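Rotation project, supervised by the postdoc (A.L.). Task for the rotation student: set up a whole-complex structure prediction and record inputs and outputs verbatim in this book. Inputs entered:
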Amino acid sequence: MGKPKAYDDIPGTTVFDAQRSRQGYHLNMFCMSLMKAENREAFKANERAYLDRWPMTEEQKQAVLDRDWNGMIDRGGNIYYLAKLFFTDQKSFQYVAAIMTGSTQEEYAAMMLKGGRPPEGNRYKKEWKKKRG
Amino acid sequence: MSHVPAIGAALDNGKSGEPYWKKVFDGFERSKEWIRKVKPDVILLVYNDHAVAFSLDIIPTFALGCAAEFPVADEGWGPRPVPKVIGHPELAAHIAQSVILDEFDLTVVNKMEVDHGLTVPLSLMYGQPKAWPCPVIPLPVNVVVYPPPTANRCYQLGRALRKAIRSYGEDLRVVVFGTGGMSHQLQGPRAGFINSKYDRRFLDRMTKDPKSLTRITHLELLREAGSEGIELVMWLIMRGALDAKVREVHRFYHVPASNTAVGHLVLENVK
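Outputs recorded:
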Protein backbone atom coordinates (compact mmCIF):
# COMPACT_ATOMS: atom_id res chain seq x y z
CA MET A 1 0.00 0.00 0.00
CA GLY A 2 1.43 3.33 -1.04
CA LYS A 3 5.13 4.02 -1.15
CA PRO A 4 7.50 1.56 0.54
CA LYS A 5 8.34 2.67 4.07
CA ALA A 6 11.72 2.61 5.77
CA TYR A 7 10.30 0.22 8.40
CA ASP A 8 9.11 -2.30 5.82
CA ASP A 9 12.45 -4.13 6.06
CA ILE A 10 11.96 -5.12 9.72
CA PRO A 11 11.07 -8.82 9.71
CA GLY A 12 7.86 -10.20 11.20
CA THR A 13 6.59 -6.72 12.04
CA THR A 14 3.59 -4.71 10.88
CA VAL A 15 3.75 -1.05 11.79
CA PHE A 16 0.26 0.24 12.59
CA ASP A 17 0.46 3.47 10.61
CA ALA A 18 -2.31 5.76 9.36
CA GLN A 19 -2.97 3.57 6.30
CA ARG A 20 -3.29 0.43 8.41
CA SER A 21 -5.52 2.23 10.83
CA ARG A 22 -7.86 3.15 7.94
CA GLN A 23 -7.82 -0.40 6.59
CA GLY A 24 -8.58 -1.86 10.00
CA TYR A 25 -10.96 0.79 11.31
CA HIS A 26 -14.10 -1.39 11.57
CA LEU A 27 -12.20 -4.52 12.64
CA ASN A 28 -10.58 -2.59 15.47
CA MET A 29 -13.77 -0.81 16.47
CA PHE A 30 -15.54 -4.17 16.62
CA CYS A 31 -12.83 -5.35 19.04
CA MET A 32 -13.23 -2.17 21.06
CA SER A 33 -16.97 -2.85 21.47
CA LEU A 34 -16.03 -5.96 23.49
CA MET A 35 -15.04 -3.75 26.40
CA LYS A 36 -18.74 -3.79 27.39
CA ALA A 37 -19.93 -6.91 29.20
CA GLU A 38 -23.27 -7.02 27.34
CA ASN A 39 -21.48 -6.88 23.98
CA ARG A 40 -19.17 -9.72 25.03
CA GLU A 41 -22.25 -11.78 25.83
CA ALA A 42 -23.88 -10.98 22.50
CA PHE A 43 -20.68 -11.84 20.63
CA LYS A 44 -20.22 -15.14 22.48
CA ALA A 45 -23.86 -16.09 21.88
CA ASN A 46 -23.52 -15.76 18.09
CA GLU A 47 -20.16 -14.59 16.78
CA ARG A 48 -21.15 -14.46 13.13
CA ALA A 49 -24.33 -12.45 13.80
CA TYR A 50 -22.45 -10.01 15.99
CA LEU A 51 -19.73 -9.57 13.36
CA ASP A 52 -22.37 -8.89 10.71
CA ARG A 53 -23.32 -5.72 12.58
CA TRP A 54 -19.96 -4.27 11.50
CA PRO A 55 -19.09 -3.20 7.95
CA MET A 56 -15.95 -5.34 7.94
CA THR A 57 -14.65 -7.26 4.94
CA GLU A 58 -15.46 -10.95 4.70
CA GLU A 59 -11.73 -11.75 5.12
CA GLN A 60 -11.61 -9.72 8.32
CA LYS A 61 -14.66 -11.51 9.70
CA GLN A 62 -13.28 -14.92 8.79
CA ALA A 63 -9.95 -14.09 10.44
CA VAL A 64 -11.85 -13.20 13.63
CA LEU A 65 -13.92 -16.42 13.54
CA ASP A 66 -10.72 -18.44 12.95
CA ARG A 67 -8.84 -16.47 15.63
CA ASP A 68 -6.18 -16.02 12.95
CA TRP A 69 -4.21 -13.33 14.78
CA ASN A 70 -1.59 -12.71 12.08
CA GLY A 71 -4.42 -12.67 9.54
CA MET A 72 -6.20 -9.96 11.52
CA ILE A 73 -2.99 -7.93 11.69
CA ASP A 74 -2.49 -8.34 7.92
CA ARG A 75 -5.99 -6.90 7.46
CA GLY A 76 -5.42 -3.81 9.58
CA GLY A 77 -5.87 -5.17 13.08
CA ASN A 78 -3.84 -3.65 15.88
CA ILE A 79 -2.68 -5.74 18.81
CA TYR A 80 -4.08 -3.40 21.48
CA TYR A 81 -7.52 -3.62 19.86
CA LEU A 82 -7.22 -7.36 19.24
CA ALA A 83 -6.47 -7.66 22.97
CA LYS A 84 -10.16 -6.97 23.66
CA LEU A 85 -10.98 -10.06 21.60
CA PHE A 86 -8.47 -12.37 23.28
CA PHE A 87 -9.40 -10.99 26.70
CA THR A 88 -12.99 -11.92 25.84
CA ASP A 89 -11.65 -15.42 25.12
CA GLN A 90 -9.92 -15.25 28.55
CA LYS A 91 -6.52 -15.48 26.85
CA SER A 92 -3.34 -13.53 27.58
CA PHE A 93 -0.90 -11.56 25.46
CA GLN A 94 1.57 -14.39 25.85
CA TYR A 95 -0.93 -16.98 24.61
CA VAL A 96 -1.52 -14.97 21.44
CA ALA A 97 2.15 -14.09 20.98
CA ALA A 98 3.05 -17.79 20.94
CA ILE A 99 0.47 -18.45 18.21
CA MET A 100 1.63 -15.49 16.13
CA THR A 101 5.21 -16.74 16.23
CA GLY A 102 4.23 -20.29 15.31
CA SER A 103 5.49 -21.79 18.57
CA THR A 104 3.86 -23.72 21.35
CA GLN A 105 3.07 -22.01 24.67
CA GLU A 106 5.92 -23.92 26.30
CA GLU A 107 8.48 -23.02 23.61
CA TYR A 108 7.50 -19.37 23.70
CA ALA A 109 7.56 -19.12 27.50
CA ALA A 110 10.95 -20.86 27.53
CA MET A 111 12.32 -18.41 24.95
CA MET A 112 11.17 -15.47 27.11
CA LEU A 113 12.73 -16.99 30.23
CA LYS A 114 16.02 -17.24 28.34
CA GLY A 115 15.93 -13.52 27.64
CA GLY A 116 13.54 -13.30 24.70
CA ARG A 117 14.08 -13.24 20.94
CA PRO A 118 17.55 -11.71 20.49
CA PRO A 119 18.21 -8.73 18.19
CA GLU A 120 20.96 -10.66 16.38
CA GLY A 121 19.50 -12.00 13.16
CA ASN A 122 16.13 -10.31 13.78
CA ARG A 123 16.69 -6.74 12.65
CA TYR A 124 16.35 -7.03 8.85
CA LYS A 125 14.18 -9.08 6.52
CA LYS A 126 17.25 -10.22 4.60
CA GLU A 127 18.52 -11.92 7.77
CA TRP A 128 15.34 -14.02 7.92
CA LYS A 129 15.58 -14.93 4.24
CA LYS A 130 19.13 -16.15 4.75
CA LYS A 131 18.01 -18.27 7.71
CA ARG A 132 15.35 -19.96 5.65
CA GLY A 133 17.89 -20.56 2.85
CA MET B 1 8.85 2.22 34.42
CA SER B 2 7.07 -0.65 32.72
CA HIS B 3 3.30 -1.16 32.79
CA VAL B 4 2.89 -4.80 31.68
CA PRO B 5 -0.78 -5.77 32.20
CA ALA B 6 0.23 -9.23 33.45
CA ILE B 7 2.00 -7.52 36.39
CA GLY B 8 -1.34 -6.03 37.42
CA ALA B 9 -3.06 -9.38 36.97
CA ALA B 10 -0.38 -11.13 39.06
CA LEU B 11 -0.96 -8.67 41.90
CA ASP B 12 -4.76 -8.68 41.61
CA ASN B 13 -4.87 -12.50 41.61
CA GLY B 14 -2.55 -12.91 44.58
CA LYS B 15 0.35 -14.32 42.55
CA SER B 16 2.94 -11.69 43.46
CA GLY B 17 4.71 -14.14 45.78
CA GLU B 18 5.27 -16.77 43.06
CA PRO B 19 8.95 -17.01 42.06
CA TYR B 20 8.32 -15.75 38.49
CA TRP B 21 6.60 -12.57 39.69
CA LYS B 22 8.50 -12.12 42.94
CA LYS B 23 11.60 -11.27 40.89
CA VAL B 24 9.66 -8.42 39.30
CA PHE B 25 8.04 -7.08 42.47
CA ASP B 26 11.27 -7.28 44.48
CA GLY B 27 12.85 -4.84 42.06
CA PHE B 28 10.40 -2.19 43.21
CA GLU B 29 10.87 -2.56 46.99
CA ARG B 30 13.49 0.15 47.11
CA SER B 31 11.27 2.49 45.06
CA LYS B 32 8.28 1.90 47.30
CA GLU B 33 10.39 2.92 50.26
CA TRP B 34 11.60 5.97 48.35
CA ILE B 35 8.13 7.19 47.43
CA ARG B 36 6.89 6.64 51.00
CA LYS B 37 9.61 9.02 52.13
CA VAL B 38 9.18 11.54 49.32
CA LYS B 39 5.38 11.65 49.83
CA PRO B 40 4.44 13.46 46.62
CA ASP B 41 1.54 15.91 46.76
CA VAL B 42 0.74 15.11 43.14
CA ILE B 43 1.89 12.55 40.57
CA LEU B 44 2.07 13.57 36.94
CA LEU B 45 1.77 10.24 35.19
CA VAL B 46 2.95 10.02 31.58
CA TYR B 47 1.60 6.84 30.01
CA ASN B 48 -0.14 5.52 26.97
CA ASP B 49 -3.74 4.56 26.62
CA HIS B 50 -4.12 1.11 25.04
CA ALA B 51 -7.16 1.69 22.86
CA VAL B 52 -9.37 2.13 25.91
CA ALA B 53 -10.16 5.80 26.58
CA PHE B 54 -9.27 6.69 23.00
CA SER B 55 -10.29 4.64 20.00
CA LEU B 56 -9.51 5.09 16.33
CA ASP B 57 -12.14 7.86 16.34
CA ILE B 58 -9.94 10.40 18.07
CA ILE B 59 -6.19 10.02 18.55
CA PRO B 60 -4.61 12.85 20.54
CA THR B 61 -0.83 12.85 20.36
CA PHE B 62 -0.55 14.43 23.81
CA ALA B 63 -3.48 14.80 26.19
CA LEU B 64 -3.86 15.99 29.77
CA GLY B 65 -6.43 14.66 32.22
CA CYS B 66 -7.98 17.70 33.89
CA ALA B 67 -10.93 15.93 35.54
CA ALA B 68 -11.56 15.60 39.28
CA GLU B 69 -11.51 11.83 39.00
CA PHE B 70 -10.79 9.05 36.52
CA PRO B 71 -12.67 5.72 36.70
CA VAL B 72 -10.76 2.50 36.14
CA ALA B 73 -11.63 1.00 32.75
CA ASP B 74 -13.00 -2.45 31.92
CA GLU B 75 -10.48 -3.63 29.31
CA GLY B 76 -12.29 -6.88 28.61
CA TRP B 77 -11.65 -8.73 31.89
CA GLY B 78 -13.74 -6.38 34.01
CA PRO B 79 -12.07 -3.36 35.71
CA ARG B 80 -8.92 -4.00 37.77
CA PRO B 81 -9.82 -4.06 41.49
CA VAL B 82 -7.92 -0.86 42.25
CA PRO B 83 -9.08 2.47 43.70
CA LYS B 84 -10.38 5.13 41.34
CA VAL B 85 -7.88 7.77 40.44
CA ILE B 86 -8.37 11.23 41.92
CA GLY B 87 -7.14 14.08 39.76
CA HIS B 88 -5.84 17.55 40.56
CA PRO B 89 -7.94 19.81 38.32
CA GLU B 90 -6.38 23.08 39.50
CA LEU B 91 -2.79 22.09 38.79
CA ALA B 92 -3.84 20.30 35.60
CA ALA B 93 -5.60 23.41 34.29
CA HIS B 94 -2.54 25.49 35.11
CA ILE B 95 -0.27 23.02 33.32
CA ALA B 96 -2.53 22.96 30.25
CA GLN B 97 -2.57 26.73 30.02
CA SER B 98 1.15 27.03 30.56
CA VAL B 99 2.29 24.40 28.05
CA ILE B 100 -0.20 25.42 25.35
CA LEU B 101 1.10 28.98 25.54
CA ASP B 102 4.54 27.41 25.40
CA GLU B 103 3.49 25.98 21.99
CA PHE B 104 2.69 22.41 23.06
CA ASP B 105 -0.83 22.02 21.72
CA LEU B 106 -2.05 19.21 23.92
CA THR B 107 -5.63 18.03 24.16
CA VAL B 108 -7.53 18.86 27.35
CA VAL B 109 -9.58 15.89 28.56
CA ASN B 110 -12.30 16.38 31.15
CA LYS B 111 -13.77 12.90 31.09
CA MET B 112 -11.64 9.80 30.76
CA GLU B 113 -11.28 6.24 32.00
CA VAL B 114 -7.77 5.03 32.74
CA ASP B 115 -6.34 1.63 31.81
CA HIS B 116 -3.49 -0.62 32.97
CA GLY B 117 -0.96 1.80 31.46
CA LEU B 118 -1.75 4.14 34.34
CA THR B 119 -2.84 1.78 37.11
CA VAL B 120 -0.03 -0.81 36.90
CA PRO B 121 2.75 1.75 37.62
CA LEU B 122 0.70 3.00 40.61
CA SER B 123 0.33 -0.58 41.85
CA LEU B 124 4.05 -1.19 41.51
CA MET B 125 4.83 1.89 43.61
CA TYR B 126 2.04 1.59 46.18
CA GLY B 127 0.91 -2.04 46.27
CA GLN B 128 -2.76 -2.51 47.07
CA PRO B 129 -3.99 0.47 49.14
CA LYS B 130 -7.69 1.26 49.74
CA ALA B 131 -7.14 4.65 48.12
CA TRP B 132 -4.18 6.03 46.15
CA PRO B 133 -2.18 8.24 48.52
CA CYS B 134 -2.23 11.37 46.34
CA PRO B 135 -3.93 12.94 43.33
CA VAL B 136 -2.72 11.89 39.88
CA ILE B 137 -2.70 13.94 36.68
CA PRO B 138 -2.76 11.57 33.70
CA LEU B 139 -0.82 12.56 30.60
CA PRO B 140 -1.61 10.05 27.85
CA VAL B 141 0.65 9.94 24.79
CA ASN B 142 -0.30 8.24 21.53
CA VAL B 143 2.11 5.38 20.86
CA VAL B 144 -0.50 3.04 19.35
CA VAL B 145 -0.98 4.59 15.92
CA TYR B 146 2.33 5.30 14.18
CA PRO B 147 3.94 7.77 14.41
CA PRO B 148 4.12 8.68 18.08
CA PRO B 149 5.66 12.06 18.88
CA THR B 150 9.43 12.15 18.37
CA ALA B 151 11.88 11.57 21.19
CA ASN B 152 12.97 15.17 20.98
CA ARG B 153 9.40 16.49 21.09
CA CYS B 154 8.77 14.41 24.20
CA TYR B 155 11.88 15.73 25.88
CA GLN B 156 10.92 19.31 25.02
CA LEU B 157 7.41 18.76 26.40
CA GLY B 158 9.06 17.63 29.61
CA ARG B 159 10.94 20.93 29.73
CA ALA B 160 7.67 22.83 29.28
CA LEU B 161 5.98 20.76 32.00
CA ARG B 162 8.78 21.56 34.37
CA LYS B 163 8.32 25.27 33.71
CA ALA B 164 4.56 24.90 34.22
CA ILE B 165 4.89 23.04 37.52
CA ARG B 166 7.46 25.52 38.81
CA SER B 167 5.21 28.48 38.04
CA TYR B 168 2.20 27.10 39.92
CA GLY B 169 1.17 29.34 42.82
CA GLU B 170 1.33 26.67 45.48
CA ASP B 171 4.52 24.88 46.53
CA LEU B 172 3.75 21.26 45.73
CA ARG B 173 5.99 18.24 45.60
CA VAL B 174 5.37 16.71 42.19
CA VAL B 175 6.74 13.35 41.10
CA VAL B 176 6.70 12.65 37.36
CA PHE B 177 6.26 9.04 36.23
CA GLY B 178 7.52 8.21 32.74
CA THR B 179 6.12 4.80 31.86
CA GLY B 180 6.11 2.23 29.07
CA GLY B 181 8.74 0.03 27.48
CA MET B 182 11.33 -1.25 27.62
CA SER B 183 12.13 -3.37 24.57
CA HIS B 184 9.23 -5.56 23.57
CA GLN B 185 7.17 -6.66 20.61
CA LEU B 186 3.68 -8.06 21.08
CA GLN B 187 2.70 -8.69 17.47
CA GLY B 188 3.56 -10.81 14.47
CA PRO B 189 6.24 -13.46 13.95
CA ARG B 190 8.90 -11.30 15.66
CA ALA B 191 6.90 -11.15 18.94
CA GLY B 192 9.01 -11.77 22.01
CA PHE B 193 11.80 -9.53 20.71
CA ILE B 194 14.01 -8.26 23.57
CA ASN B 195 17.18 -6.19 23.31
CA SER B 196 18.74 -6.02 26.76
CA LYS B 197 21.92 -4.36 25.57
CA TYR B 198 19.90 -1.54 24.04
CA ASP B 199 17.72 -1.20 27.14
CA ARG B 200 20.65 -1.02 29.52
CA ARG B 201 22.33 1.61 27.39
CA PHE B 202 19.07 3.54 27.32
CA LEU B 203 18.96 3.51 31.13
CA ASP B 204 22.57 4.75 31.32
CA ARG B 205 21.81 7.56 28.93
CA MET B 206 18.59 8.51 30.76
CA THR B 207 20.69 9.33 33.80
CA LYS B 208 23.85 10.72 32.27
CA ASP B 209 23.22 11.83 28.72
CA PRO B 210 19.50 12.38 28.02
CA LYS B 211 20.25 14.86 25.22
CA SER B 212 21.69 12.01 23.14
CA LEU B 213 18.39 10.14 23.47
CA THR B 214 16.51 13.01 21.84
CA ARG B 215 18.23 12.12 18.55
CA ILE B 216 16.91 8.56 18.47
CA THR B 217 14.68 7.95 15.46
CA HIS B 218 11.46 5.94 15.38
CA LEU B 219 13.06 3.58 12.86
CA GLU B 220 15.84 2.84 15.37
CA LEU B 221 13.31 2.19 18.16
CA LEU B 222 11.20 -0.12 15.97
CA ARG B 223 14.23 -2.10 14.86
CA GLU B 224 16.23 -2.13 18.11
CA ALA B 225 13.53 -2.03 20.82
CA GLY B 226 10.63 -3.74 19.01
CA SER B 227 7.38 -2.42 17.59
CA GLU B 228 5.93 -1.77 21.05
CA GLY B 229 9.29 -0.72 22.51
CA ILE B 230 8.68 2.57 20.72
CA GLU B 231 6.87 3.49 23.96
CA LEU B 232 10.29 4.43 25.28
CA VAL B 233 9.78 7.95 23.91
CA MET B 234 7.50 8.57 26.91
CA TRP B 235 10.42 8.22 29.31
CA LEU B 236 11.89 11.37 27.78
CA ILE B 237 8.94 13.49 28.91
CA MET B 238 9.80 12.56 32.48
CA ARG B 239 13.51 13.16 31.87
CA GLY B 240 12.87 16.56 30.31
CA ALA B 241 10.97 17.61 33.43
CA LEU B 242 14.07 16.98 35.58
CA ASP B 243 17.31 18.95 35.89
CA ALA B 244 20.14 18.21 33.48
CA LYS B 245 22.07 16.70 36.38
CA VAL B 246 20.26 14.04 38.36
CA ARG B 247 21.04 11.44 40.97
CA GLU B 248 20.13 7.85 40.20
CA VAL B 249 18.41 6.60 43.35
CA HIS B 250 17.50 3.17 42.06
CA ARG B 251 17.69 1.06 38.93
CA PHE B 252 16.09 -2.26 38.15
CA TYR B 253 16.13 -4.28 34.95
CA HIS B 254 14.64 -7.71 34.46
CA VAL B 255 13.63 -10.08 31.67
CA PRO B 256 10.94 -11.37 31.34
CA ALA B 257 7.59 -10.18 32.55
CA SER B 258 5.27 -11.97 30.16
CA ASN B 259 6.52 -10.68 26.74
CA THR B 260 8.60 -7.78 27.86
CA ALA B 261 11.70 -6.44 29.50
CA VAL B 262 10.92 -4.55 32.70
CA GLY B 263 12.98 -1.43 33.30
CA HIS B 264 12.75 0.99 36.15
CA LEU B 265 14.71 4.08 37.18
CA VAL B 266 14.26 6.46 40.08
CA LEU B 267 15.93 9.81 39.42
CA GLU B 268 16.10 12.88 41.64
CA ASN B 269 17.23 16.41 40.99
CA VAL B 270 20.52 16.97 42.79
CA LYS B 271 20.04 20.62 43.84
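Student's summary: Chain A has a mean pLDDT of 95.
Supervisor addendum: DSSP finds ten helices and no strands in chain A.
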